[in-house]
Amino acid sequence: MGETVQQDKRSSGFWHTVPGLITAVAALLTALGGFLGVLVQTGVLRFGGEDGSGTGPSGAAATGDAERSVRPGGTAPAAPGPTPLAADPVPWERATADLVRRDGTTTRVKAPTVGLSCDTETLTFENGQRVALETVRSIRFDAVYLDSASADGVVTLLDGRELTDPIDTWNCPVTGQNELGSVQVELEDIRRIDFHR
Question: CA 47 to CA 12: how far, in whole Å?
Answer without folding.
Answer: 43
